[in-house]
Amino acid sequence: MQLYNLREGIAINFSVEGNSIVITPQKRKKYTLDELLLGMTPDKFHPEFETGNAVGSEDW
Prior knowledge:
Structural class: mainly beta
Low-confidence stretches: none
Number of strands: 2
Mean pLDDT: 84
Shape: elongated
Radius of gyration: 21 Å
Strand order of the largest sheet: 1-2
Largest sheet: 2 strands, antiparallel
Number of helices: 1
Distance between the termini: 38 Å
Strand content: 15-25%
Order of helices and strands: EEH
């Protein structure tokens, strides 16, 4: 089903065209950075925090 961009849990649309049932995945809205940051205000920012030294292959 990957060929059709369908997988378990994905939202789909059903439609009827003639004698056929057509199933298509719902398209997700693409947001701009401005849209994503629209509701951000200084009181919603969290402070930085220390995570400690790298213990694996992290790259800071």
